[in-house]
Amino acid sequence: MSFVRVLEGNRLAFLCVAFALAAAGLFAAVGLPVGLFPVTSFPRIRIEVGAGSMPAKQMLIDVTQPLEEAARAVPGAVDVVSTTSRGSAEIFVDFPWGSDMNQAVLRVATAFAQTLPSLPPGTTYDAIQMSPNVIMPFVSYALISNRVSPADLRRLAKYQIGPLLEGIQGIRRVGVTGGQTPEVEVTVNPLKLEAYGLTLADVSQAIAATNTISAVGRLEDNDLLYLAIANNAFTSVRSVREVALHTAKGGVVRVGGGRAGANGYVAQREGERIKKKSSRRKDTW
């Protein structure tokens, strides 16, 4: 007897079995948990270090190496790997499999906190336990425009789109890369600086001390309270050129002294070029 004849003779039984298997498969598909990104406690901690715009070589000597020594002294650490660039560094600390990573993160953070006072001022760090969502961005957006400048794209991503994404439940962090950050570049003539008895630190301190906004007092009038503010913030390249420097002989010179200031952009540690257009990338974890 062929299989076809058996199937024709027991059609009802085969239909019942097929229906039962289909129902069981549907029930299993609905109730079966899906671990697309399983929760795995990787024995690695990543530390993101920032120190402004410090040169890479100085960053390596003054910041990365002391933090590496502190990381190697953490109980249980088996390996320390780092990557250093201008003003930033990434340090990876490995632990044995099965380690209590919550305790490991606390130990690494404590060791770095004890080392932080001996590092250059302005140094910051952030210790992160590695997981699938930390290793790679869960979603990434790119802003591309032929009309809007990279600087405007960066401001749009940082101050408008970023806060909206951070307000979504479940998003841990929003990062922005690429684009351009406007700044005023001051070019100093070493010979003139030496002739006036000044140093680069004097120029930097004078510019920082001038570019300030501070509250100087309050005034009450007709049941209204007014706050008096001294606003010396820079508004253009010309305002930077007008900063006064006191020379060693008691004289006063201006930073401009010609055309020492010019519009520029902060040097990028990571450039983003998408389809050879001005672009801005936003990564969301």
Written description of the protein model:
This protein has three domains: 44-135, Multidrug efflux transporter AcrB pore domain (Alpha-Beta Plaits, 2-Layer Sandwich); 139-181 and 268-284, no CATH class; 183-265, 2-Layer Sandwich (Multidrug efflux transporter AcrB TolC docking domain, DN and DC subdomains), CATH 3.30.2090. It has helices at residues 3-9, 11-31, 56-72, 101-115, 132-135, 150-166, 190-195, 200-210, 237-241; strands at residues 44-50, 79-85, 88-94, 124-129, 139-145, 174-178, 182-186, 213-221, 224-231, 244-246, 252-254, 261-265, 278-284. The longest helix is centred in the N-terminal third of the chain and has 21 residues, at 11-31. By secondary structure, it is of the alpha+beta class. It is elongated, with a radius of gyration of 30 Å. A four-stranded antiparallel beta sheet has the order 2-3-1-4, with helices on one face. The protein has a three-stranded antiparallel beta sheet with strand order 5-13-6, covered by helices on one side. Residues 269-279 have low confidence and may be disordered. Helix 3 packs across helix 4 (101-115). Strand 8 (213-221) and strand 9 form a beta hairpin. It is built from nine helices and 13 strands.
Question: How are the SSEs ordered, and which strands pair?
Answer:
Blueprint (H helix, E strand, L loop, with lengths): L2 H7 L1 H21 L12 E7 L5 H17 L6 E7 L2 E7 L6 H15 L8 E6 L2 H4 L3 E7 L4 H17 L7 E5 L3 E5 L3 H6 L4 H11 L2 E9 L2 E8 L5 H5 L2 E3 L5 E3 L6 E5 L12 E7 L1
